[in-house]
Design brief:
Blueprint lengths: L9 H7 L5 H11 L7 H8 L4 H11 L8 H11 L5 H14 L7 H9 L10 H11 L15 H11 L5 H6 L1 H6 L2 H4 L3 H9 L9 H14 L5 H7 L8 H13 L9 H12 L8 H16 L4
Helix pairs in contact: 1-2, 2-4, 3-4, 4-6, 5-6, 6-8, 7-8, 7-9, 13-14, 14-15, 14-16, 15-16, 16-18, 17-18
Length: about 300
């Protein structure tokens, strides 16, 4: 019962940060932020400990927004932890920095450098990159999810290329914020990586795997890149999970091309036929109607 932590003494809460249990550490850290004391000296001592669980708990607590602490010291300590040999500590430090928010932006270059590194031997699934993507690029809570002002573009692009290859669909999806925050000239060097992330979906995180693909074709359409039109057709994948939303978004993106989309009218007409014959035709009826309306609109469109 997490509410029992309200009755624990500050000493017990600090001891809880060294527990082997992630739940105990997390709940102890969460309760410390409700207390009035200055716990930073104790937390820094735990961070310097040789006990890994103590370091994990201290990282959790240093990132709690309500814990009274000198943000500069917390950010410096957590940034140093990004260079630890302990993968779990590095991940917890990145998450803690994201929770601190704007005061932690000085840590962004170090986080981008970590994201740009790969360790196939010790981290073959790219779990560190996964959590760094969330901590950096999420629109809600990521350190640079809403603004890239002052961020070194070369370092950013190098990190994004790695992130777009991560095996987790949700991690890739968080990088969609970069698409929205860069100009065409800035994002142009990324186009090959963006194209690859569209045509090669993430192998895991299927619930989120379409996100970065849809962001990618929307980006191509926004900059009037004609290769985006056949990609819209290609990634609809009407037999795969999540098809209804994916088809809806692809059709909306195709519509922005106007008369230029006449190049894919044969594919759209075949799509309409396939949707009508689909085993889930009833559920897909709205997108079938959407496809039919789009075909008529493109047929009537003037220009190129």
């Amino acid at each position: 019962d997490k509410f029992r932590y309200q009755d624990r003494s500050e000493k017990d809460l600090l001891n809880g940060l060294s527990s082997w249990s992630p739940s105990v550490r997390k709940r102890s850290a969460g309760e410390l932020k409700e207390r009035e004391g200055d716990f930073q000296p104790a937390l820094l001592k735990l961070m310097a400990s040789s006990d890994r669980y103590s370091r994990y708990g201290a990282a959790e607590a240093l990132g709690q927004p309500g814990v009274k602490a000198d943000a500069t010291v917390s950010v410096s300590t957590l940034t140093e932890a990004l260079e630890s040999d302990d993968l779990c500590l590095r991940i917890l430090a990145a998450e803690a920095l994201a929770r601190i928010g704007s005061p932690a932006r000085p840590a962004v270059p170090a986080m981008l450098q970590r994201l740009a590194k790969t360790d196939g031997e010790n981290d073959p699934r790219g779990m560190e990159q996964r959590f760094l993507c969330f901590s950096l690029f999420n629109r809600r809570g990521g350190l640079i999810g809403r603004s890239l002002d002052g961020i070194d573009r070369e370092l950013l692009l190098r990190a994004v290329r790695i992130g777009l290859q991560n095996e987790d669909g949700r991690a890739r999806g968080s990088l969609g914020s970069v698409y929205a925050n860069l100009t065409y000239d800035e994002i142009k060097p990324l186009l090959p990586a963006i194209h690859q992330a569209i045509v090669e979906p993430a192998p895991s995180g299927i619930m989120f795997a379409s996100g970065i693909r849809l962001s990618g074709i929307a980006l191509l359409a926004r900059h009037r890149i004609r290769e985006g039109m056949p990609l819209c057709i290609q990634i609809m994948e009407i037999e795969k999970w999540g098809k209804k939303n994916r088809i809806t978004q692809c059709l909306k993106t195709l519509e922005t091309y106007g008369a230029a989309a006449k190049a894919v009218l044969p594919e759209l007409r075949q799509l309409e036929k396939d949707l009508r014959a689909h085993k889930e035709a009833r559920m897909l009826a709205p997108v079938t109607q959407q496809a039919q309306s789009l075909i008529k609109k493109i047929d009537r469109a003037d220009g190129t």
